[in-house]
TrEMBL record:
SUPFAM superfamilies: Enolase C-terminal domain-like, Enolase N-terminal domain-like. One of its GO terms (molecular function) is metal ion binding. This is Chloromuconate cycloisomerase. Keywords: Isomerase, Magnesium, Metal-binding. The keyword Magnesium applies. PANTHER family: D-GALACTONATE DEHYDRATASE-RELATED, ENOLASE SUPERFAMILY MEMBER DDB_G0284701. Transmembrane segments: none annotated. Pfam families: MR_MLE_C (PF13378), MR_MLE_N (PF02746). Its cofactor is Mg(2+). Belongs to the mandelate racemase/muconate lactonizing enzyme family. It comes from the Archaea.
Length: 349
């Protein structure tokens, strides 16, 4: 088995702000695995919040690729992910990259799209939100208007500043007919969150994501108990083992491949959420179609979808699963994840 690891610095269309940082590029690591003439691709945009970087992932991947090569069979996915977890337990982003590549490779060898290999229903894919990052109220309004005009019926609005109300009001005025979900990225105190929930409800907000610090489960529970708006846990719920801890403190959990370490760990998290009576959402970073495409194939399993990361890039070297309005069309994928490197003329290779 051969492999290739690349680091890419992908520019964003606009600076993307959340409560704790603003980004202008997406630091991405791509791995390509080739076995018996077929190549699978995986990628990740690591997050410093979870103590990983493009540099650390790129340094770790060759060792993990050697493990996959030793096993020698991309269809031995349970064994592969078990051994990768043993080798890199504290590096879920590195494991995610290879998880995607292995699943893509195996499905391409079978000439099947992933969702069909898993027996999932492509008509059960929820619409994805489009995320409006923190910016001036005027620029946030402009982004919201453009997204609504492009067919997005659901917006995620990043908050967590002193001017939250002005920003949300600007978005609501610019896109009066869309559903708005709010994400504070752990920026508020419990009392701030409870106080803000009143006017968020008046503004028609339909989801409140991670209002308080990740480790403060009691405060998360207090916010959930205080508002009728469904509350989602993101930073508070990293892997399946976190689900019992947050089960009575939220209504929804947000699964991200980059947090939990790949496709099979994400599936375990979603199953745990279902077992505890929680709704689930699939989320992402600002990242390439080379990783977004894999997550889309899990979309029939969830209630909410937030997989717009590739749409925030100025350019992406990979095509992915096409969007029809705000719904991903899995039936357009012929094999694997659907991620394909674009040729120099802008079309897929």
């Amino acid at each position: 088995m051969n492999w290739r690891v690349d680091r890419l610095e992908l520019p964003l269309s606009n600076p993307f702000g959340i409560s704790r940082e603003t980004s202008e590029t997406s630091e991405t690591v791509v791995v390509e695995l080739t076995h018996e003439g077929t190549t699978g691709v995986g990628a990740v945009t690591p997050s410093a919040y979870y103590d990983e970087s493009a540099e650390s992932v790129a340094e770790t991947l060759p060792t993990l690729c050697e493990t996959v090569d030793r096993i020698g069979d991309p269809h031995a996915q349970q064994r592969i992910e078990r051994e990768l977890d043993e080798q890199a337990a504290d590096q879920p982003a590195a494991r995610m990259t290879l998880s995607i590549a292995v699943h893509d490779l195996a499905a391409r060898q079978l000439d099947l799209p992933l969702y069909r290999q898993w027996g999932l229903d492509p008509d059960a894919v929820p619409p994805t939100t489009y995320t409006v990052g923190i910016d001036s109220p005027e620029r946030m309004a402009e982004k919201a208007r453009k997204a609504a005009d492009s067919g997005f019926g659901h917006l995620k609005v990043k908050l967590g500043t002193d001017d939250d109300r002005a920003r949300l009001d600007a978005v609501r005025d610019a896109a009066p007919d869309v559903e708005i979900r709010v994400d504070a990225n752990a920026a508020w105190t419990v009392q701030e969150a409870i106080d803000k929930a009143d006017w968020l409800a008046d503004a028609g907000v339909t989801m409140l994501e991670q209002p308080v610090e990740a480790d403060d489960i009691d405060s998360l529970r207090r916010v959930t108990d205080a508002t009728a708006i469904p509350v989602a846990a993101d930073e508070s719920c990293v892997t399946a083992s976190d689900v019992p801890r947050v089960a009575d403190a939220c209504d929804i959990v947000n699964a991200k491949l980059v947090k939990c370490g790949g496709i099979r760990p994400a599936t375990r998290l979603l199953n745990a959420a279902d077992a505890h009576g929680l709704d689930s959402m699939l989320g992402c970073m600002v990242e390439s179609n080379a990783s977004i495409a894999a997550a889309v194939h899990l979309a029939p399993l969830v209630d909410y979808l937030d997989l717009d990361g590739a749409l925030l890039l100025a350019s992406d070297p990979y095509d992915g699963v096409p969007l029809d309005g705000d719904v991903f069309d899995l039936t357009a994928v012929t094999a694997g994840t659907g991620a394909r490197r674009r040729s120099s003329d802008g079309g897929p290779d």
